[in-house]
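Example complex used in Figure S2.
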Amino acid sequence: MVEPTLYELSSSGRRGFEYPEQDVPSTRLPEGLLRKDLPMPELSELDVVRHFTHLSRKNYSIDGGFYPLGSCTMKYNPRINEVVARLNGFARAHPLQPIETAQGSLVVMYMLQEALKEITGLAAVSLQPAAGAHGELVGVLIMRAYHLSRGDSKRTKILVPDSAHGTNPASSSMAGFEPVNIPSDARGNVDLEKLKEICDASTAGLMLTNPNTLGLFDEHVLEVIEIVHNAGGLVYGDGANLNALLGITRPGDLGFDILHINLHKTFSTPHGGGGPGSGPLAVAAHLADFLPDPLVGIVDPGDEETPPLYGFLHPSQSIGRIKSFHGHFGIIVRALTFILMQGAEGLKEVSEMAVLNANYLMALLKKDYHLPYDRDCMHEFVLEGVWPDAPDIHALDVAKRLMDYGLHPPTNYFPLIVNEALMIEPTESESKQTLDYFVDVMRKIAREAHEQPDLLHDAPHDTPVGRLDEVKAAKDLVLCCWRPEE
Amino acid sequence: MFIPHTDVERQEMLKAIGKKNTAELFNAIPEAFRYPKLELPDALSEMAALQQFSEWAEANNACNDMVCFLGAGAYNHYIPAAVDFLLQRGDFFTAYTPYQPEISQGTLQAIFEFQTLVANLTGMEAANASHYDGATAAAEACISAFHHFKGKRPKFVLSPLLNPQYVDTVKTYFGLLVDAQVVVPDAHKPQACIDAIDGQTALVLVQYPDFLGNIHDWSALVKSAHESGALVAFAANPIALGLLKAPAEFGADFVVGEGQPLGIPMSFGGPYLGYFATRKEFVRKISGRIVGETVDQTGRRGYVLTLTAREQHIRREKATSNICSNQALMALAATIYMSLRGKNGLRKVAELCYQKAHYAAAEIGKLKGFRLVNTQPFFHEFVIECPISVADINEHLLEHGIIGGYDLEETYPHMRNSMLLAVTEMNSKDEIDALVEVLAEVANG
Amino acid sequence: MNTPEYLKYAKTDEWVKVDGNIATIGISDFAQDQLSDVVFIEFNHEINDMVSVGDALATIESVKAAADVNCPISGKVLEINEGLTDIPETLNSDPYEKGWLYKIEMSSSAELNDLMDAAAYAAFCEGRH
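Predicted assembly (1060 residues):
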């Protein structure tokens, strides 16, 4: 059923929320600066509640089903996180109110910084970046600032593996660097020989995702890092895949200089339909002075009588401010709730189960789907969604058919180095029953691909809409449901 | 915690993959760095966690306990009860980015409606699915302008009365790009902004109302900018737009801003909501996700992410921005808020803010030792010059359960003893009178 | 895959038709197939502009990709097929005739030697997916 838009539901004169009467004397409104018309819809509260309730029912969600999206870490979003974030003391705090009146919020932020330092093995953390890509941009800006501070303005290139997420080269370009592609070898590791060739005095650094987007832990990670360091470059870690490493190893120990973390992936904060996220940035000691300003810290250590006073520090060589205020507190407090409830043992179990679940699926599916890199994976793995003897079927068709079985498709067409990729990440939240169901469905679809390909071509059949005309969307460009002239 | 596997199931799974234990799965990790001991507090049960976080929340004196007159970029507005109930529906908040549109029509239609409401509120032709916040939206406007002119116009003129955090953010984004030049004319000369525009200018960015609350008629500046071939972006307060002339009427090319006042809690600084509106001719130059309307193969109306070829996952290093996440859930909150308020409500809340602020300003202006600085019309924020330091006044106000205004000396060193006060529909006449009383005490004592 | 004999081809999938001193440029059938439905074209130059090999002459956008048209031959821009912006799908239906993008007055016809002939280009495309 098509749900009408707000404007289609609108009825002239209908009122929703009512305000209390104005209790102060009136003064004249500024003539010449007033708008004559406000073309907004007019709905009752029930109209609004029904409309959005209907919309919510058209969505797939983690609450509703399994989401094996590689690289996204669609784990369960605990309800306790939601309760904590909504505590009045947190929700109603103004970001600029005097620090003495916001010690609760500041302690939370400080504790998350400390926890992330411990988990990553790095020396300092900024909670300011709003999302992973934002954290990446900060990381790249720090690389530039660091080299310039050493008087080295020749480092203009950043090395990016061919399996990298698109944000990696995009962030590099945004900061004025030239991204240079590094190929992977047959086992999915960074090609060491090529790396040695390309790494030189023009290299600002390497952006490495480890485990990478194939779900594989680089078998030569220590050498890779050494090569870059020897050339005078820095190693940036894309922490999107941190869910495989909690309590298993620490990027800082391996030699990474900078790492961004996605709280909305690894640390259970909700995806919200596309955001908000939070992308804290962790750095090694020699880069701590470059972190964004402001940075949460202890401004007065206190003594036996008085507790420490938490507030804001200003790193001495800061790259500056990268957004308003100090970070996505609402997401930060949810992540800390998750970490404190897991503890060190719990976090290790998270990664162990995430990796076990992925290897389990991989072992069961590799008979029916081609597995380009056949070695133990970490928390995710990549299959090909094509068969030489079913030439009309593409990964897209497999993805759409999964929806008919009540499942969200895996990540499609990424990483680019695998043909017709299906990237699968189950996370630790999913039970054996769910995984077994997924395997059954995937096997069924593999059979259908060979015996009844039209079932895939015409899929999905049981969703609110079928396959949508994306060409029409891009050409007609209808971006609003209603505009005043209409 | 939150892990469903039983011991039996673990064994079955290990057997299926031919391993004796999970440790065998981590052989690729250098042995010296395997299984670090993490020094973290012992795990808390849900009950204990709630207890701990409640203690921390109570350690705050937030605006549930205190009366708030602080603004400067984040505002204490009333959030209708229905907003949060709808946001808490698991199908909204635990959903992923709508890359598979057939099973994400809820999110897609909501964002499409958000785009529409933002476009209509600002008077512009199109809007995107949101940015992280107002400051980064402003920076993205500069980036769009930079790419529009293909780097041939490297100069950005930022109004000195733009929120200082926006200025700092733009400077960070562009600071390390050798070719760009960010110019902020001297605060004392409003005309200096117009004088700074030339043939090298890509974009002029102004705020409406400005950081000190003033409402300017930016027509002359827009005309001048367009005559020089430069584009103009307005950073606009969305509540003010319920009352004031839309930026489109001045000729704005981009309108950006902070959507937090639209049903999003202050939450100590985030997550907030950057909105971004423009004309159709620029739609391919802007970053951020965009939802478009289309049909499926049976002709049913549906929505998809469109113009994705601009974005990082396709264009990679040639993308104009690296942005991936938007603030989808916050955009949903704003859409619900604007739907509940509607045409009448949005006008009403703006009027209440305006009238209460003017009442407060007038009453404070009558006090000996205090002076209302604003000469322009203002919206819901204004500047008062105080007889003693703002820090001392605010300390005094705190003792009376009031969070006072922003100390402008932090931003403009020449504005000593000057406080930026914000008044919203949440402040009753009694609260305003109480504020005036305490300020009077301060002047006398 | 269509690869007309009378054209020359660049590694980056542009074709060149030579007529005296004038080069007409477009994108190959292989390129349009890779892109799939073209929805938008943006020309980056104007008439009389001087362009060099490798310059981004235009940006072509489909629903799944956006690609630059790389200048295969240096010279002065004489004509631009602006009409394509209204009917971008022409690049898919007729990439070699109606889908031409630029006409350039060559400044160095020696550069034509760096381009492939039809057979070489067809073989080159075989190896790619």
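The interface with chain A takes residues 37, 39-40, 61-63, 88, 129 of chain C (CB under 8 Å). Strands of chain C lie at 8-9, 14-19, 22-27, 38-43, 50-51, 56-62, 66-70, 75-80, 102-106.
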